[in-house]
Amino acid sequence: MKSLDRKYLERLSQLFPTIASASTEAINLQAILNLPKGTEHFMTDIHGEDEAFYHVLKNGSGAVRRKIGDVFGKTLSEQDKRGLATLIYYPKEKMEIIKEQRVDMEEWYRITLYRLVEVCKAAASKYTRSKVRKALPSDFAYIIEELMTEVNDGTDKEHYYSEIVNTIIRVGRAEDFIVAISELIQRLVIDHLHIVGDIFDRGPGPHKIMDKLMTYHSLDIQWGNHDVLWMGAAAGQRSCIANVIRICARYGNMDILEDSYGINLLPLATYALNTYKDDPCTCFQLKGDPCINEKEQELNIKMHKAIAILQFKVEGQIVKKRRSFQMEDRNLLECIDYESGTITLDGKEYPLKDTYLPTVNPLDPLALTEEEEEIMSRLESAFIGCEKLQAHMRFLLNKGNLFKVYNNNLLYHGCVPLTEEGKLKEVEVFGKKYRGKKLYEVLESYVRKGFFELDPEEREKGRDMMWFIWCHENSPLFGKDKMTTFERYFIADKETHKEKKNPYYVLSDNEETADMILAEFGLDVATGHIVNGHVPVKSIEGESPSKAGGKILVIDGGFSKAYQKETGIAGYTLIYNSYGLILVSHNPFESKEQALVHESDIHSETIVVERTLVRQQVGDTDIGKELRAQIEDLELLLSAYRSGEIAERY
Q1: Cα–Cα nearest to 304, from 230, 385, 343, 250
Q2: Average pLDDT of the residues in 401-428
Q3: Strand order across the beta sheet in which 348-351 lies
Q4: Which residues contact 429 (CB under 8 A, 6 or more apart)?
Q5: Where are the alpha helices (DSSP H) in 480-560?
Q6: Angle CA(590)–CA(210)–CA(445) in degrees, nearest 5?
Q7: Do 624 and 617 contact (CB within 8 A), yes or no?
Q8: DSSP state, 536?
Q9: Nearest to residue 203, comparing CAs of 48, 341, 397?
């Protein structure tokens, strides 16, 4: 048994002033250790697709359906189970549909209330009564607790419980109660949520996703490359700002910035219309199927080109400023022959698809015009001054990291940079070299410096490092030799569009590579797993999300519709419960309306990655380790009491 210093014993004795209170707490903690392990839910690469995200969050990647199956088995038809699950996901909306279809709602309320209570009991069974009580909705806390503690033993209390249900219906609160208990079930089926990167990107609702996450009961976030890009923009880094706006423009999602975050894009719009008034901007057509009218689309296209040119200028400036980034080959505006309209890359000359560059000075291509400088300055102030954006980024900083070790699982977005030989790659960061875990740690420290460092020079380094993380070949979140944004816009030859991936993406299928990475981050090689996002799994080609003998699980969520043609499905999520690890594949999410009317769901198949022979308990988790440490401290306190060392405090 470890020994504690006198001051710590004194503090413990103040927290537990009697021998009874200390011993009772030790008993309580020991009991918690034997509860079943809570369910963890892993999601990644949401890419701003808020409706699909909400649906997966509500159903817990099938956790709700599994709970209904556990409770009712074959006593309910599959249709009734689907209907009950849909009601739990969307209680208000589903009840409106049911009221249009049924005459006798009172009987439906009674049956449904009893069914929901049974599902809620099962969902709450993994937790202490105290934890469940804290999760109860305030309006119905007493009633739900009473109904959940019902014992079917034929005693006189049966009438008591029936009267509670009857009264709920009689006073017209049945629908409110159904909403409350459905939301409680959603809350209880998932104990902890992991978001393994890329909340932001091309989708229309990243701000809505962030609002939802900020109210979630328990979660952590591993930053993705798009998340760090938005963080850099919020910190005022110009290259990050330009990239964020360009991506929004490319997918017709400018209202994310204007309406959702209140960022004024009028100066940019006016500039784009004037500068490219007669330019068709053919190379800057929009992607996807943006829901905007023809005039808005034309404006977006011109803004798309305007911000792209600004991006290439400010990126060229940072390349020159940060020589240690060694990205001179990406300063492409200086590689153009403006007379011939060609560009030379790797010794080969290519014609440009678009040579109308009125704001680029051939003698000084990276220089901003006076109007461009004014626009960038105003955008910088707008991003830094946006209260909602700053609140979202503070939440990412508070709940997020570049990697996380949790219950013997290593979570990260992207890759661990490796050499061709499979060794951890050394990466230079401001004059010092790092690899593996230390590389992640130093990069994360600079992200935080970009927001909080008091020294102006160090803070500027932190801001620029966020752009490095976004697009550098040695960034764990990017992991390609270059980002060929310029080439895709301006060069027809698709050979120049290729982005070579870090060797990690081939070598990660080897168990030896997985073991090396697990050991580098301090995990048990025999039992640990890596949960990895970022790269869509091409199921349509037979690719498996389980790699390296099941030690690496790639769960790119596939929420972005753009990837679904390549993958054949809408990606994967992961469930880790007391029985083991379960991969869940998803069909594309059509709409909330489809889910309601047809009671369809999007989890299509489950793959058991690892099933434990012995049901895992809280004692097998990281929380269990903390509880054991607390129990050990309490036992030391009790021992000190028995020996008379601190008897005077009792």
Answers
A1: 250
A2: 96
A3: 336-337, 342-345, 348-351
A4: 439, 442, 443, 446, 465
A5: 485-490, 504-507, 511-520
A6: 130
A7: yes
A8: -
A9: 48
Give the predicted TM-score (pTM) of the model.
0.92
204, 312, 467 from 240: Cα distances, Å: 19, 11, 6
Phi-psi region of 45 (alpha: psi -120 to 50; beta: other; left: phi over 0): left
φ/ψ of residue 616, rounded to 5: -70, 145
Q: Quote the CA–CA distance of 470 and 242 in Å, as a whole number.
A: 13
Q: What is the pLDDT of residues 560-593, one digit of tens each?
A: 666 656 555 567 889 898 888 888 887 777 777 7
| The amino acid at 448 | R
Closest CA to 306 of 273, 344, 330: 273
Helices and strands (H and E) in the chain: how many: 27, 17
Is residue 337 a contact partner of residue 343, using CB atoms and an 8 Å limit? yes
Hey, what amino acid is at 494?
Answer: K
Of 409, 457, 465, 464, nearest in space to 440 by CA: 465
The dihedral through the CA atoms of 601, 607, 608, 610 has a sign that is negative
CB atoms within 10 A of CB 158: 13
pLDDT at 30 over 80: yes
- Sign of the alpha-carbon dihedral angle for 407, 413, 417, 420: positive
CA–CA distance, 440 with 434 (Å, rounded to integer): 9
Strands (E), 281-374: 336-337, 342-345, 348-351
Instruction: Compute how many other C-beta atoms are within 10 angstroms of the C-beta atom of residue 550.
Output: 16
Secondary structure of residue 534 in the 3-state scheme: coil
Distance between CA atoms of residues 11 and 17, nearest Å: 10
The per-residue pLDDT of the chain, averaged, comes to: 90
600-620 average pLDDT score? 71
Among 397, 403, 439, which Cα is nearest to 418's? 439
Cα separation, 61 vs 559, in Å, equals 13
Beta strands across the sheet bearing 192-195: 400-401, 219-222, 192-195, 40-43, 572-577, 580-586, 603-611
Query: Other CB atoms closer than 10 Å to residue 464's CB: what's the count?
Result: 23
Question: Which residues sit opposite 547 in a β-bridge?
Answer: 552
604 pLDDT band (50/70/90 cuts)?
low
Q: How many CA atoms lie within 13 A of 403 on its CB side?
A: 28
